[in-house]
Amino acid sequence: MDPVTVVFGLACIGAGGGAGFWLKKADERLQKLSDKAIVLQEGQAAHFSHLNTEVNNLRAEVSQMNGLVNSLRATHPEIDGALLVHSTINNLESSSPEDTLNLRSETISALETILSSISTEAEIGGEGLLSASTERLLGRLLDLLEQRNISVDGLELNPVAAHRLGHACLHLRRYAWAELSFGVAYRSSPGNKNILEALEHIALLRGDDELRRHWLEARMTVSPDQPELLRAHAHLLAKMGDAEAERDVRRLEALGLETAADRSL
Asked: What is the pLDDT of residues 96-114, one digit of tens each?
């Protein structure tokens, strides 16, 4: 064997050994990378599993919270109404005047809800009808509606809601709104004693004797022999210089209920 062949053979053996050694090291590194990838995947799987568990727990808590809020709103109409009114106020404030009518149904729903706890037989001019927070929210909403030139008639409230709004506005001393609200309710129930008393009370507060006489006589049509009405009517007519006051006094006398003040008329 000549020297060239020997050298070439040794070179091939050395190259083969080097290549084998490199391949072995490369295989070891690939195995390590594979092991690391497996560990990383397992870690990520555990992480995502934990994350999914946390997300599901959070969803369950949010769902439970929503359920509690819905239950609270269902059992406390004033709270539900306050939330609806607050949302309506925000929507009105962020909308253009042209969009006001589009929010009418939302406004009606908010008003009907926040007023639902008010009795249509509430005492006229009574105290404690609304909470302080409800007063503020309702006042803000009415201010916004006035700015947009929306009246009670424009809202198209049903008679019961209008009746309740009348009581609320009377409590807030917003007599124009109260009168219009009771007026809407009156058109549906002209013989309702509570509505007639409210309209007479507003006329009294305004110092409008003619209008008060109108509503007082409407009340007397429903309750003709009620002493308080006869007496109030007699004193009002005497104040206005109307001789018809004597007829009320005679009726009180016939009922045996006249007083010295009545006879002095």
From this structure: 776 776 788 899 999 999 9
Buried b (16+ CB within 10 A) or exposed e, 142-175: bebbeebebebeebebebebbbbbbbbbbbbebe
- State the number of CA atoms in the 13 A half-sphere of 121 facing the CB: 0
Q: Are 183 and 169 in contact (CB under 8 A)?
A: no
Q: Which helix (H) or strand (E) holds 73?
A: helix 3-75
CA distance 250 to 234: 10
∠ CA(66), CA(89), CA(119), 5° rounding?
Answer: 75
Supply φ then ψ for residue 240, to 5 degrees: -85, 0
Output the six-digit token pair for 211.
Answer: 């209008």
Containing 44, the helix (H) or strand (E) segment is helix 3-75
Digit-coded pLDDT (tens) for 7-54 = 445 445 554 555 566 666 766 777 777 777 777 777 777 767 777 777
Neighbours of 258 (CB within 10 A): 20
Nearby residues of 179 by Cβ (< 8 Å), 6 or more positions away: 166, 199, 202
| Spacing of C-alpha 234 from chain mean position | 45
> Is the pTM higher than 0.90?
no
Query: Cα separation of 12 and 156, whole Å?
Result: 102
160, pLDDT greater than 50: yes
